[in-house]
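Late entry, evening session. Most of the bench is empty. Finally got around to the prediction I had been postponing all week. Sequence below, unchanged from the version circulated by S.P.
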Amino acid sequence: MQNLKYYKQFNNLNRKSFFSKLTGFVPTYSFINTSFRWQRNFLLSFLSNHVVYYSTPINLTYSWSFGSLAGLSLVIQIVSGVFLSMFYTPHIDLAFASIEFIMRDVNNGWLVRYIHSNGASMFFLVVYCHILRGLYYGSYLKPRELLWVSGVVLLLLMMATAFLGYVLPWGQMSFWGATVITSMFSVIPMVGPPIVEWLWGGFTVNNPTLNRFFTFHFFLPFVIAGVVLFHLILLHKEGSSAPVADSAGVDHTPFYPYFFVKDQFAFFCYLLIFSTLVFYYPNLLGDPNNYILADSIHTPRHIVPEWYFLPFYAILRSIPHKAAGIISMLLSLLVLFILPFINTSLVKDTSSRMLFKVFYFAAIADFLVLGWLGQSPVKDCYILVGQVATVYYFIFFLVLLPFSGSMERAFVYNFTIVKPKILDALRIWVSIFLFMVTLLIFTVSIINLFIYALFPFFVILFFSRFCRG
């Protein structure tokens, strides 16, 4: 490639001028050196092909740095978790005390524990941003279907690992969260109750449960690391996607030093936010009830999972039937697997799809509303809004995403190049109908939210100010 050729020439010239003038010594190689034979060693050849000279689209933005930040978060979690496991005791009588021992008596134990607990939140934040970027720029489309599927598998493994880790401190939320989540398996016909008994190691959440959860929590991160390796293999096989696709590979450049420096900048921004969270607000994202020793007799008034589970927990609570709610929660994750196979758009970038862009940002707002509803108390108004938000969540992935592509293809492609067909015209009217229904549902949810949640607040605020005056 022309860019790579000029870069090599500049690097050699720069190396000779500096080293020869200052020291009189010309080194045999630099980090990127045309005279050094990278291919003579397997490890150096791997480094050359997949890091140094890895062909990268030149127009990648900083949103592509979320992938490397996710890998960094995984390393931080594994290293800090290994150190914590040296002092943690997986026993119901000693687990809570061992956490206090780590926080109070182990040298810098408080720091390692806060890094691990807040690192999980940063990990999910980075991964959610990574998924949203993939949805926006169509990174799940052909030929990267398996890459997307492997990423969804990683998300499920992350959620399982995070849930297991949340149980280990053995606080009130840990105990009751384990009880609620493991009880969900009981809805499976015939094999459900035996699975629950196997997870519990008995008939209640007890010491065998904690031992098994600790074992799985220690083991799964290494499984995640293996799947990450497979994810990277698929990425380097098909190449990175780009905001504007370039199948010819003309506008590509080596990963080093351009995107290496770009990822470094993203890493320092990540480190700044992470450090602020660890040193100034370490308990911001934690639940106060989890600082109380687990008690099987006293149930917390409001059981809430960690913030990164809240949208899916809201979907679970929005449906009054237990089995239907659990199935809906599972489908809200499994629906991500089929996205590469139901999309009908000819354009990957959402910035060029005005109709789908509206649906996309409405889906982000819907996801945030579900997260807010997940930590709200169980009331009729919140349940109603949660049901509406759940409906839109599934409509977006199962209806709007495929049919918006058909509509855009019919309007842009068929009307300008070929004559529209009957099937495309039918898809247009179906898409318009579904869009109007979705808009109606969204409007009703906003009105209900205002009537049941915001209107009483403004009334109370008005009368309080009126009485003062």
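Two things to note before I forget:
The chain has three domains: 2-44, 60-303, 312-469.
Strands lie at 55-57, 252-254.
Will write this up properly tomorrow.
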